[in-house]
Fold this protein.
Amino acid sequence: MAAKLVFLGRLEDLAGTGELPVQPGPLDQVLAMLDPELAVELLGERIRMALNGALLAETGGIVLADGDELAFLPPVSGG
Amino acid sequence: MADVRLLGDPFDPAAELAAFTATHPESGGVVSFLGQVREGDGVEALELRQYGPLTLPGMERLAHAAQARWALDGLLIVHRHGRMIPRDPIVLVAAAARHRRDAFAAADFAMDHLKSDSWFWKREQAGGQWRWIEPRTEDYNDRARW
């Protein structure tokens, strides 16, 4: 099993993929394995996160477990 | 009472509106808004991306909020995702009510929120190049009216 990162909008282009399987663990360790440029973008203040489909109000101290899906959501531009 | 759909394939807004209106013979007013892919500015295609766990549930919450706020007989929200070309319908909102003001307000409210805080990401293709569209300040201002 693994955890999964999901990249929406322009983050998908930056990551070069819409989904990325990662080793479970604390988020800072997960991000440390990524391209630093991507990691910086993912932590941008306009990027929101959803863990297993639920929006996170507080993004500190996240630890990904097996099967978790963490989505990175840039500002929306719909309609 | 609300009909909320997120579609990956083209839809026929006239047929949707006719069916919705026929379902609400008791309503004195039906207000609808259709958004379509603009022709011009060299735009060749538009793509809307959604996120399964958030996008449709958010649209359903928006419909409930509109129904709680205005006296509606029915509310229809049909929204595309995926790749579209100029003239393709993107979104259809229709509100049916006994009196027109409730229908106008609910449709306006729904559109402002679909534009500014629904979970869609948009990119346009022009000259063969795709470009992600950032939210516009006007969209946030429109939402703040409510």
The longest strand of chain A covers residues 3-7.
